[in-house]
From TrEMBL, chains A, B:
Catalytic function, reaction form: tRNA(Asn) + L-asparagine + ATP = L-asparaginyl-tRNA(Asn) + AMP + diphosphate + H(+)
Main localization of the protein described in the UniProt heading: cytoplasm
The protein's name: Asparagine--tRNA ligase
UniProt key word tRNA-binding: no
PROSITE patterns, alphabetized: AA_TRNA_LIGASE_II
The Aminoacyl-transfer RNA synthetases class-II family profile domain, residue ranges: 137-475
Subcellular location field: Cytoplasm
GO molecular function, one term: nucleic acid binding
Assembly notes: Homodimer.
Length: 483, 483
């Protein structure tokens, strides 16, 4: 017998089927009772809005109503009636209530009061039942769907690049080892080294830091592709911006140069933000309010100028600033915080790597807009970036967002075999390991480009949350792999 | 200067813009030349169909034409004209051709001749440039998009469950270890054991075999969720059906019982197949032809009765057969191959685990339809499956597809805390490790259900390929982590 005869609260709110008998199922958020009536605020996760259930103690037995405490899961059948008191247009007059699962008020941790984000992180298995995290994960879903829709609508193909990789040539960061050997007691070769020939893949294997190189292979066949998968960094970074396991979106496009790449990235970022604005209005309103309350606890001069929704609209409606690294260095060198030695890392000469403080100065103080920084010195960028005519810079781009810093990194790729192998030699990257990558420069090479978007940083930006651990369901960080 | 001024071949074929000057970019598949004219078959990955470029040697220099060999990447500007000779309605009269990247005919491995799938697997970095693999990966993309569209349209939320996990309780298979310790020389505790406190996560960690348990946590807040992510098995299975790294789709739904779960799974599978039929017509036609040629190499009595497209339509248009394990055992026990001892594993009594040969007999010989098998003996299924009233079976379901065997496994989940913990004790699963999973039975529990679809098995079914290594871009199997 099918059990799922319920209607979702989102549908009831959209349609207000006055006079109809319906069944709702969901979790009790709060219950207010007096002698004559009980009001239950019910949430089923389909929307942030609770639906009001009205229970008459003459109709619903007292022991049932007693069990309808915060967190309990209940099934209500009743009639939709016009609502006079509440802010909603309709409410449900309960005929029957069935308690599907209780939640002992003495033990259930999510009682209706304000909980700190730190506390909720410890009970990540329950935190999605709160308004804040329900909203965050609905918005996260919408952003993920927008990513797929954007690329699908434009004829890009989704490629699943490998998670386990034997290559560690990309050098994007420290890697996790993957093995089936007994750690501490592996088989050894005659000279005493670990005998990786006996490991599962018959060689050393790691978790990927990027699907880019494999993505390029696919782009050299299908023209326009994207990846959307997990990537890993085994770095001991306990910050509000880093995860050991995070999701990346990496489009790679044949026939794109650096400017095409910038155009695509800007259009793509605006699209997915606009999609969230259109499809997550209520969740974003709630998150905006939450962010505002957080802002209000800061000193006045550190508060954001724009509210969350204004900020998102501002990004969608305005051109990103595009300037070269060289121009940025000039601005930074002559900036007040540099002259007054307020930067932790002072900008003295061309070639310096930009720190978060510099990126944020450019975005938040100088331009007050998202910024696309291009043409970085080759010595601070990866081997595969296309070398510019000047012999000093590469066709890189980083996109910097207010409050986030770098959200996108990309480049035109070096398609010229001689230039690429020369750079690999300079950087001590063994050609044998990347023979397959070099083949795409040997056979039917073409100008091409791509970028990577850290998905959690985008969710952070759109939800206005401030710690990246709060925008992924079960965060992995140093010392933490719970759930 | 933006470089990407090209039109995709798919758009040109759809619109046939006769008389317009356009630019195409792509890879040469073949070139046929005589004294008066060269015909170049161009492919850009947007479609399986090559576009015919006509080059007059009086217009295009001989040395340029010479470089337009198979695999070369070229840019052509010219005028779209009606095509008389070729099977297409239009073709391109080249005004200029620029060779973006040559492909030395002496060295390029993909010359226009038939290559074995085994050979192409060795050059997986290039195989997407063939008709077969171009088609496979376009269909794979369409199926992945259909998954997201199906669930998004129905109000399910996409959850990214963790890839790295400290839990190994699910017991779905052998796991890969994830570590940052030096494998041959890890730090040790006083009693000589590996000191995992010094590992990245301060405990032992593995790659996930399933996102189900975490998915259930999310369903207990958002009602209907799905995962779509990589999962791993460190099993030494060198078969045409197993990968060490593969992608799974795992919906979990609050308020669903076993029947709701079956209904959803059947509807979902039909939807994504129908989506591929509607959106991948040309690729499927090609793959059907390829599969037919493969069938024709088999003895007549082993050939499939239906062609690929007929098979897909048959699945979409017919109800799946639903029967219990107990009914299936009766059928199998009385079947000819069992009586004649043709099965490798004879079915003698209730309780036997079904092997692939039994599943295929039911699907391919007895019912000739997809089959949903339900209510398996509890002793051959996982601890979290809901126990039926009979005390012997659980509310499991496996969906079996012709030529594939098990494509979906799922169940109603045990929501009753006492029954669940009792089963865990019987199966020696430590409660402490799954405290968070048990919490969802302590607080606001509800009937719920879910299933897992092995994505590559679905791609295998829809593309008619016969080896699972040929439907994922860069397969990971024992001894193989190349690219």
């Amino acid at each position: 017998m099918a059990f799922n005869k319920r209607v979702k609260i989102k549908a009831v709110l959209d349609q207000s089927p006055i006079g109809q008998e319906i069944t709702l199922m969901g979790w009790v958020r709060t219950k207010r009772s007096n002698k004559n009536v009980s009001f239950i605020a019910l949430n089923d996760g389909s929307t942030i809005t609770n639906y009001q259930v009205v229970a008459d103690p003459n109709v619903i037995a007292e022991d049932i109503l007693k069990k309808c405490s915060t967190g309990a899961c209940i099934k209500i059948t009743g009639t939709v009636v016009e609502s006079l008191g509440s802010g909603q247009s309709s409410e449900l007059n309960a005929k029957t209530i069935e308690v599907l699962g209780e939640a002992d008020p003495e033990k259930y941790p999510l009682q209706p009061k304000k909980h700190s984000l730190e506390f909720l992180r410890e009970i990540a298995h329950l935190r999605m039942r709160t308004n804040t995290f329900g909203a965050v994960f609905r918005v996260r879903h919408a952003l993920a769907f927008a990513v797929h829709k954007y690329f699908n609508d434009r004829g890009f193909f989704y490629i699943h690049t490998p998670i386990i990789t034997a290559s560690d040539a990309e050098g994007a960061g420290e890697m996790f080892h993957v093995t089936t050997l007994p750690i501490g007691n592996p088989p050894r070769t005659e000279d005493g080294k670990v005998d990786y020939k006996q490991d599962f893949f018959e060689r050393e294997a790691n978790l990927t830091v990027s699907g880019q190189l494999e993505g390029e292979l696919a782009a050299m066949a299908l023209s326009e592709i994207y990846t959307f998968g997990p990537t890993f960094r085994a770095e001991n970074s306990n910050t509000t911006r880093h995860l050991a396991e995070f999701w990346m979106i990496e489009p790679e496009m044949a026939f794109y140069d650096a400017e095409d790449n910038q155009n695509l990235a800007e259009d793509f970022l605006k699209y997915i933000i606009q999609y969230a604005l259109e499809n997550c209005e209520e969740d974003l309103k709630f998150l905006a309010q939450r962010a505002q309350e957080e802002e209000n606890t800061k000193p006045a001069d550190q508060r954001a100028e724009l509210g969350l929704i204004e900020k998102l609209k501002f990004v969608v409606e305005n051109d990103f600033v595009r300037l070269s690294y060289t121009e940025a260095i000039d601005i930074l060198r002559n900036s007040n915080p540099n002259k007054k030695k307020k930067f932790q890392y002072l900008i003295e000469s061309w070639g310096a790597d930009l720190q978060s403080e510099h990126e944020r100065y450019l975005v938040e103080k100088h331009f007050k807009k998202p910024v696309i920084l291009t043409d970085y010195p080759k010595d601070i960028k990866a081997f595969y970036m296309r070398q510019n005519e000047d012999g000093k810079t590469v066709a890189a781009m980083d996109i910097l967002f207010p409050g986030i810093g770098e959200i996108v990194g990309g480049s035109q790729r070096e398609e010229r075999l001689d230039k690429l192998t020369q750079r690999m030699q300079e950087m001590n990257i063994p050609e044998e390991e990347l023979w397959w990558y070099l083949d795409t420069r040997r056979f039917g090479a073409t100008p091409h480009a791509g970028f990577g978007l850290g998905f959690e940083r985008m969710v952070l930006f759109v939800t206005g949350m401030s710690n990246i651990r709060d925008v992924i369901a079960f965060p992995r960080t140093p010392g933490n792999a719970e759930f």
